[in-house]
TrEMBL record:
<dbReference type="GO" id="GO:0019877">
    <property type="term" value="P:diaminopimelate biosynthetic process"/>
</dbReference>
<dbReference type="GO" id="GO:0008840">
    <property type="term" value="F:4-hydroxy-tetrahydrodipicolinate synthase activity"/>
</dbReference>
<keyword id="KW-0704">Schiff base</keyword>
<comment type="pathway">
    <text>Amino-acid biosynthesis; L-lysine biosynthesis via DAP pathway; (S)-tetrahydrodipicolinate from L-aspartate: step 3/4.</text>
</comment>
<dbReference type="InterPro" id="IPR020625">
    <property type="entry name" value="Schiff_base-form_aldolases_AS"/>
</dbReference>
<comment type="subunit">
    <text>Homotetramer; dimer of dimers.</text>
</comment>
<protein>
    <recommendedName>
        <fullName>4-hydroxy-tetrahydrodipicolinate synthase</fullName>
        <ecNumber>4.3.3.7</ecNumber>
    </recommendedName>
</protein>
<keyword id="KW-0028">Amino-acid biosynthesis</keyword>
<comment type="similarity">
    <text>Belongs to the DapA family.</text>
</comment>
<dbReference type="Pfam" id="PF00701">
    <property type="entry name" value="DHDPS"/>
</dbReference>
<dbReference type="GO" id="GO:0005829">
    <property type="term" value="C:cytosol"/>
</dbReference>
<keyword id="KW-0457">Lysine biosynthesis</keyword>
<comment type="function">
    <text>Catalyzes the condensation of (S)-aspartate-beta-semialdehyde [(S)-ASA] and pyruvate to 4-hydroxy-tetrahydrodipicolinate (HTPA).</text>
</comment>
<dbReference type="InterPro" id="IPR002220">
    <property type="entry name" value="DapA-like"/>
</dbReference>
<feature type="site" description="Part of a proton relay during catalysis">
    <location>
        <position position="112"/>
    </location>
</feature>
<keyword id="KW-0220">Diaminopimelate biosynthesis</keyword>
<feature type="binding site">
    <location>
        <position position="206"/>
    </location>
    <ligand>
        <name>pyruvate</name>
    </ligand>
</feature>
Length: 295
């Protein structure tokens, strides 16, 4: 699968999971899939951090994957979050996702139990060997408490169906190390760092802000790929203001769900321990969306 390193290039959107009275809102979830098909989003990433996977039961996790795959119906790629800090659980979820019809699986680094680098390597190796679908490594030490070092990611690049890494360390040095030493696709895991990462050779982004402005994120990527750096920078700075004022208000996905509520695309419901934005933050958010031209 080495030739599939560009499989998830472009705009992947880290989808929210809509709730209604504490339960998954299947109708709203299907509507979100259709919205992204219409907007030209390249890939959907359900049940990741933005999809509140930590508070979904395994049955609900599988339910979301199944709904998204059925609604996508081949019209848009699906890269489902199936990671866990238990290798057995990650394999179980990934096998289910393969049967459900995903195009690939996104695997967050094992969190809380802080494996050694050899532990990270064996974890991803075991998952990759258990399925036939492309695997994307997700490295976000700010949430998992430990970095997958570049040397480990470079080792993992030799495994045929490990095709990409979602790079959320915030370190351009780490990204440069990976890009200079292997042919894994590197995807930005931070909206505000997408353009800098593309300049190093990154292939795209797994975007949170793409939940509300997928067309604008695509415009930035398209401008860069067309060699129009001035236009790409223009889009970057426009999006940067939105990201800074929106995503910085509280832990993801609280602000993006609140934004979608203000835009009439979600009811804003989150599961504990996530809580609603306070009234002051909602005012800041409303002003941010108005200044951007969304309200």
């Amino acid at each position: 699968m080495a030739n599939q390193s560009d499989l998830f290039a472009g705009l992947a959107v880290a989808m929210i999971t809509p709730f209604q009275n504490g339960e998954i809102d299947e109708t709203a979830l299907r509507a979100l899939v259709d919205y992204h098909v219409e907007q030209g989003t390249d890939t959907l990433c359900p049940v990741g951090t933005t999809g509140e996977s930590p508070t979904l039961s395994h049955d609900e996790h599988k339910q979301v994957i199944s709904i998204v795959c059925k609604q996508a119906a081949g019209r848009i790629k699906v890269m489902a979050g199936t990671g866990s800090n238990s290798t057995r659980e990650a394999i179980e979820l990934t096998k289910y996702a393969q049967e459900a019809g995903v195009d690939g699986a996104l695997h967050v680094a094992p969190y809380y139990n802080k494996p050694t680098q050899e532990g990270f390597f064996q974890h991803y190796q075991a998952i990759a060997e258990s399925v036939d679908i492309p695997i994307v490594i997700y490295n976000i030490p700010g949430r998992t408490a430990k970095n997958i070092e570049p040397e480990t990611i470079i080792r993992l690049a030799d495994i045929p169906n490990i095709v990409a890494v979602k790079e959320s360390t915030g370190s351009m040095d780490q990204a440069s190390h990976i890009l200079s030493a292997c042919d894994l696709a590197v995807l930005s895991g931070d909206d505000s760092l997408t353009l800098p990462l593309m300049a190093l050779g990154g292939k795209g982004v797994v975007s949170v802000v793409g939940n509300i402005v997928p067309g604008d994120v695509k415009s930035m990527l398209n401008a860069f790929n067309a060699g129009d750096l001035a236009l790409a920078r223009e889009w970057h700075f426009k999006l940067f203001g939105l990201c800074r004022n929106l995503l910085g208000l509280a832990t993801n996905p609280i602000p993006i769900k609140a934004a979608m509520q203000l835009l009439g695309r979600d009811n804003g419901e989150v599961r504990l321990p996530m809580t609603q934005l306070d009234s002051g933050s909602m005012q800041v958010l409303e002003k941010t969306l108005r200044d951007y031209g969304l309200l």
